[in-house]
Design brief:
This protein is an all-alpha fold. 78% of the residues lie in helices and 0% in strands. α5 crosses α7 and α6 runs antiparallel to α7.
């Protein structure tokens, strides 16, 4: 890996660590390491690390896009990342409500199902750890 790619990858991994997602996309790493390197290095090392928007703002934008597009994958991990970086439950719910009124009521229903899945999974993990 060139110095530039390594630097970009390191920046991406630092952002993923801040979000609690350093172990995400492992399926990409196993299936095709180049895809994983692009995701970490380019998506997070270049796009998420650009100036002018904070990680918090980028997370809100990403969740809004995923909710509006009713993405079946990825949204769960972004809810977890949002909570990890300090976005509150109330803020997530307000985001769902706000986006849903532009994207349509089914977008709200889909987002709520996904968010409830995350809350239940995380509560189950906390019980096992207690």
């Amino acid at each position: 890996m060139s110095d530039f790619k390594q630097e970009r990858w390191n920046k991406g991994m630092e952002i993923l660590k801040q979000m609690g997602r350093e172990n995400t996309m492992m399926d990409q790493k196993v299936l095709y390491p180049d895809l994983y390197d692009l995701s970490v290095g380019y998506l997070f090392g270049e796009i998420w690390s650009r100036p002018h928007l904070s990680i918090r703002e980028r997370e809100l934008i990403t969740m809004a896009a995923n909710i509006a597009l009713a993405r079946p994958h990825g949204t769960h991990s972004h809810y977890r990342s949002a909570k990890r970086i300090g976005i509150t439950h109330e803020e997530i719910m307000e985001l769902i409500i706000h986006v849903g009124h532009y994207a349509g009521w089914p977008a709200i229903a889909h987002a709520v199902v996904q968010y409830e899945e995350v809350l239940k999974e995380d509560a189950g993990k906390e019980k096992k750890g207690a």
